[in-house]
């Protein structure tokens, strides 16, 4: 058993009502001029959350894919108000803006995640320009503190909750067979899948159930931890490639995941056994597929904007520059995987 384990220094405050400690978290960093970041839709809610905080400015124009032009506007706003800290309240898109500002300025970020993307626990940043997304890892962008308050997630629409939750499960699943995985990460990944798989079907039925929301947010924290220090493989590569065809991030992850697990099944038996245990299912791929069916989310790439004519090109891109993966990544079986995901076949 040989492995390397790295732990990242983020301070995590978890629990219903924990948002009331936001001002104290900012004070711990010695910050006095906060730039508050949100998407336009969440701007009002975020201002409510920020009461009592030393807010120097608000940037409420965060959008998906962190486009460079909008990032530049956010960086300019941080300079203009002389911010000494960014507080992001929202999902992966919003956190992406805090990270982009930190990347060029080293401003500390305090993240208040309200989806299950897990971005708040990683050093991964991404900025898009002209249809391509540049990504990288940099310790500067890692939030110094993260406040997980499930009460802030009660209004997260069921469809977003489900897709974002499956995205989190995908982080855990690939961490279980990552070439740079380790026993601690595997424990977190198994527990993350268990917590999310238990919570998501209940959220689909009762979106305002605080206990289920707490379970899902707990699972997403673990999922974020798993991708923070391990590499992703075929599943994430395919989703990255499909993102280049304009497909939505979380939905793509949820559709591809069971098929990617089927692809890797025989090459990663220990990982599959952990997933099966966490899902209480006899097969990882079908277990994930059946979980998704209960959530009422799209099950076919055809339903989220993929064109059948583009499948071959997607398979070619994925096979030509693969990420390390337990099973060799080859064009023909990857194309078959994509066809199955396109049609929404039970794997
Ligand atoms: P998102 O941040 O785009 O949010 C989706 C929508 O939900 C937005 O309209 C948002 O305003 C709304 N919303 C968020 N929280 C809400 C709440 N509590 N109640 C009601 N509405 C709410 O979606 P996401 O899935 O969280 O993030 C996806 C993005 O994150 C992608 O761009 C992806 O690349 C990135 N990401 C990055 C990392 C990383 O480590 N860097 C990891 C995972 C995802």
Describe the fold and architecture.
Helices cover 50% and strands 12% of the residues. α5 (158-176) packs parallel to α9, α9 (249-264) crosses α13 and α10 packs parallel to α11 (284-295). It has a six-stranded parallel beta sheet, sandwiched between helices. It has helices at 22-28, 43-49, 68-80, 92-105, 158-176, 183-205, 210-229, 234-243, 249-264, 269-279, 284-295, 311-320, 331-343; strands at 11-14, 34-37, 55-59, 85-90, 109-113, 124-129, 132-137, 145-148. The chain is built from 13 helices and eight strands. The mean pLDDT is 96. It is an alpha/beta fold and 347 residues long. It binds nicotinamide-adenine-dinucleotide. Nicotinamide-adenine-dinucleotide (NAD) binds at residues 39, 41-42, 64-65, 90-94, 96, 114-115, 117-119, 122, 124, 126, 152-153, 155-156, 160, 164, 249-250.
Features:
347 residues, alpha/beta, 6-stranded parallel β-sheet, binds nicotinamide-adenine-dinucleotide, two-stranded antiparallel ribbon
Contiguous uncertain segments of 5+ residues: none
Gyration radius (Cα, Å) is 19 Å
- Name the bound molecules: nicotinamide-adenine-dinucleotide
* Order of neighbouring strands in the sheet with most strands: 1-8-5-4-2-3
* Cα end-to-end separation: 32 Å
- Biggest sheet layout: 6 strands, parallel
Count of helices? 13
Globular, elongated, flat, extended or rod-shaped: what is the shape? Answer: globular
